[in-house]
Design a protein that fits this description.
about 50% strand, about 0% helix, lipopolysaccharide transport protein A fold, globular, mainly beta
């Protein structure tokens, strides 16, 4: 599960410029935007933040043309376990504080890291990650036709690499020798001498 304490943390934002509308409760940050909220980190070219009447914050991060915006959040873990993170990229990232979900749009990619090692990796056109239920859904891109109009272009599929999770005490075991196999004995000569 995602870090639950993040929901109650203040949102800290750095950018080159800010336009705030107090009446609409919206703020638009532009230029090298970095937002942190507890363990959550969002980066992109533009961030629009809204706050509803109950105080829940939501934001839409947009990347520079040709680039992708970035999201990262630590997951709750049991003491002694390796820290896990969810991180992802997309041309647009939508964060909803009330629903506690993140939506990655266009050229979307989501990764689960165990320590510094990528455990799972998902790509698609749209990825929605629900922090409360730890469920994600992925939609593939609609396959377009190529320039000649006769065959579908590459794409349209969801791609996933899901790694098995090992317990902290597990380590790869060495294969045991069969009980009936004769043991090796040292030899001082090479070759096949007379027996």
């Amino acid at each position: 599960m995602a870090e639950k304490a993040d929901r109650t943390k203040p949102m800290n934002i750095e950018a080159d410029a800010l336009r705030h509308d107090d009446l609409k409760q919206t703020s638009v940050f532009t230029g090298r935007v970095v937002m942190t909220k507890g363990s959550i980190v969002l980066r992109g070219a533009r961030l629009e933040v809204r706050q509803d009447t109950d105080g829940y914050q939501s934001g839409v991060v947009t990347a520079e043309p040709g680039q992708r915006a970035f999201f990262r959040q630590r997951r709750d873990s049991a003491p002694g376990m390796v820290e896990e993170y969810i991180e992802g990229e997309g041309e647009v990232i939508e964060y909803d504080g009330r629903a506690d979900s993140v939506r990655f749009v266009r050229r979307a990619e989501l990764r689960r890291l165990r320590g510094a090692v990528v455990g799972d990796e998902i790509t698609g056109a749209v990825i929605v990650y629900n922090n409360l239920t730890d469920v994600f859904t992925v939609d593939g891109q609609k396959a377009a036709t190529n320039s000649s109009g006769d065959a579908p272009a590459k794409g349209g599929r969801v791609r996933a690499v899901l790694s098995p999770k090992q317990a902290a005490s597990e380590s790869p075991a060495s294969p045991a020798a069969p009980a009936s196999a004769p043991g090796l004995r040292p030899s001082t000569s090479l070759g096949g001498g007379a027996k």
